[in-house]
Amino acid sequence: MKRIRLVVADDHRMFREALRLSLAAARDIVWAGEAATGAETLAVVERLQPDIVVLDIALPDMNGVEVARQLRLRSPQSRLLALSGYDERMFIEAMLSAGAQGYVVKSAGGDELIEAIRKVASGGQYFSGDAQHSLSQEKAAEAVLSPREQQVLRLLAGGLRSVQIGAELGIAAATVEVHRRNIKEKLGLRSVVELTRYAIRAGLVSA
Predict the structure, then answer these.
(1) Quick one: 122 exposed, middle or buried, by C-beta within 10 A (0-12, 13-18, 19+)?
(2) How far is the C-alpha of 96 from the C-alpha of 99, rounded, in Å?
(3) What angle do CA 89, 92, 96 make, to 5 degrees?
(4) How far apart are CA 28 and CA 39, in angstroms?
(5) Chain segment 1-42, per-residue pLDDT in tens
(6) 84 torsion bin: left (phi>0), alpha (psi -120 to 50), beta (else)
(7) Closest among 61, 59, 49, 50 to 83, alpha carbons compared
(8) Checking DSSP bridges between strand 4-9 and strand 52-55, what pairing results, if any?
C-alpha cells in the first residue's frame, strides 16, 4: 500500500487537531507535518517535500493563492488541495490558477476529504459538492446571458447608469432598463450590488 505523506496548513490549531483525528482512520495517509502561517507552510513543505499539501486560503500572513504559487516552485512534486470556508467561484478559480489540483469546502465531511486526498495524490482532480455546485451554477447562469446582456452587466458593475450605458453602447436608456430587468430575472438577483458581485465572480469585471 502506497502511503500518502501529507502537510496541512491552517491557522486554527483546534481545526488542525480535529482534522488529524479525522484522517487517522485512513491508514494510507501519513500526517507528515503542519503549519499555521504561509511562511511556515513554505518552510515545512520545502523541508519535507510531501505528496500532498492541504492548504487553507485564509492564512494570517499571506493568502493561500500566493502560497500555492510559491509552492509550485519550491516543491513542484507536491500536489495541492485547497481546503477553505469559501465556496465562491472566484476563490476556487484563483486556487486552480495558482496550481491547486482540488478544492474542498470546509462544510464537507471527513470521508470526502480523505477521498479528495486520495484522488489528488493519484494524479486526478477533486471538487467537493459545494465547490462543484458553485462552479456549475455560475457557469450555467453566465451561459443564459446574451452577449448584449453581458455588456450591460459589465458596465453596470463598472458603476455606469442607464443613460451612460446607453450612450456607450449606442442604444436607448429605456432599452438598457429592459436588459437590466432581464439580467436580474435570469440570474435571480435584485440589486446592483448583487449584480456587481456576480460580475466579479463570473470574471466579467475585476475586483
Answers:
(1) exposed
(2) 5
(3) 135
(4) 28
(5) 789 999 999 999 999 999 999 999 899 999 999 999 999 999
(6) beta
(7) 59
(8) parallel
Closest CA to 138 of 205, 207, 198: 198
Model's pTM, two decimal places?
0.69
- Res. 174 pLDDT band, cuts 50 70 90: very high
Distance CA 40, CA 33 (A): 10
| C-beta of residue 116 within 8 angstroms of C-beta of residue 126 | yes
Reduced to 3 states (helix: H, G, I; strand: E, B; else coil), residue 28 is coil
Residue 25 identity: A
d(CA 160, CA 133): 31
Over the stretch 105-155, which tens digit does the pLDDT of each residue have? Answer: 999 988 999 999 999 999 999 999 888 877 776 656 667 788 899 899 989
Q: What is the rounded distance in angstroms from the CA atom of residue 174 to the CA atom of residue 180? A: 10
**103: closest CA among 123, 80, 70?**
80
Place of cell 477553505: 84
Instruction: Decide: residue 60, CB within 10 A, 0-12 exposed, 13-18 middle, 19+ buried.
Output: exposed
Query: For residues 125 and 175, is the Cβ–Cβ distance under 8 A?
Result: no
The three cell numbers locating residue 72? 509550485
